[in-house]
Amino acid sequence: MPTETNASHQEWITSADVARRLGVSARTVYRMIDRGDLKPRRLPSGHRRYLASEVDTLLAEESQDAS
Question: Is 57 a residue whose pLDDT tops 80?
């Protein structure tokens, strides 16, 4: 998993997991990255991983905006 000093104990999830949590397509996840809404970390293999807590925060913000 990617390592960051303050986030190494966090849960890391895949793009597919992000899409499921947010209820969007994988393509939408990549658009969110392009817009800067999500910040992936890259594994040495090139795969992307995301902090689950960041995705949950984004989901909470979207819920508040919808209210």
Answer: yes
CATH for 44: 1.10.1660.10
* Element (DSSP H or E) covering residue 56: helix 52-66
Q: Which of 17-21, 31-35, 40-44, 61-65 has the lowest mean pLDDT?
A: 61-65
* Alpha carbon distance 52, 58 (integer Å): 10
Asked if residue 2 is part of any domain, the answer here is: no
Backbone angles phi, psi at 35, to 5 degrees: -80, -15
How many domains, in total, are found in the chain?
1
* Residue 63: partners with Cβ closer than 8 Å, 6 or more residues away: none
The predicted model gives 4-32 an average pLDDT of 88
